[in-house]
């Protein structure tokens, strides 16, 4: 019985920390964080292909041993620190970009985009570039 209660509490805690956004919730969050409307469908496609709109996701190790974190799947080799001290190019910890508050993840994703464009993300290159992008017309401004 104690094990069952423990598992329930752990599951509840995990659900409080993890969130899967609907498409329109994602669009609202991206708008709130200043993502440009003319690239909104590209950003939605990127997030859907990279993380499935899940804020908490951490990838399996990449070939080079690095991992990708959060909604935008930001890589720990260059952009976020795996320690408890913020660092690397986005000056954040990887844990900070796997929360439901996407402010830090959004700022980091914008920095990556400024330097490399959407080509920084394989999910976008392989599934969005030159392809039909998600319909966000139901997601009102």
Class from secondary-structure proportions: mainly alpha
Distance between the first and last residues' Cα:
49 Å
Q: How many individual helices?
A: 5
Give the spatial strand order of the biggest sheet: 1-2
Overall shape: it is globular
Low-confidence stretches: 3-16
Tell how many strands the DSSP assignment holds.
Answer: 4
Largest sheet: 2 strands, antiparallel
Give the mean pLDDT. 91
Tell me the radius of gyration.
Answer: 16 Å
Secondary-structure element pattern, one letter each:
HHHEEEEHH
Helix content: 40-55%
Kindly estimate the percentage of residues that lie in beta strands according to DSSP.
Answer: 5-15%
Structure description:
By secondary structure, the protein is mainly alpha-helical. The protein is 41% helix and 6% strand. It contains 5 helices and 4 strands; from the N terminus they run αααββββαα. The chain has a two-stranded antiparallel sheet. Strands 3-4 form a two-stranded parallel ribbon. It is globular. The termini are far apart.
Layout of secondary structure:
Elements: H1 2-17, H2 23-32, H3 40-51, E1 68-69, E2 74-75, E3 80-81, E4 92-93, H4 103-116, H5 122-127
Parallel strand pairs: 3-4
Antiparallel strand pairs: 1-2
């Amino acid at each position: 019985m104690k094990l069952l209660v423990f598992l329930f509490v752990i599951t509840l805690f995990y659900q409080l920390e993890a969130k899967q956004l609907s498409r329109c919730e994602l669009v609202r969050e991206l708008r709130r964080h200043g993502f440009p409307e003319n690239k909104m469908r590209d950003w939605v496609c990127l997030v859907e292909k990279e993380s499935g709109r899940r804020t908490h996701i951490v990838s399996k190790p990449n070939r080079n041993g690095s991992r990708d974190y959060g909604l935008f799947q930001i890589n720990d080799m260059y952009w976020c620190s795996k320690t408890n001290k913020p660092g690397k190019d986005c000056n954040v910890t990887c844990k900070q970009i796997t929360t439901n508050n996407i402010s830090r993840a959004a700022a980091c994703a914008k920095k990556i985009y400024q330097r490399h464009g959407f080509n920084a993300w394989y999910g976008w290159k392989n599934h969005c570039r030159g392809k039909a992008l998600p319909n966000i017309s139901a997601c009102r401004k």
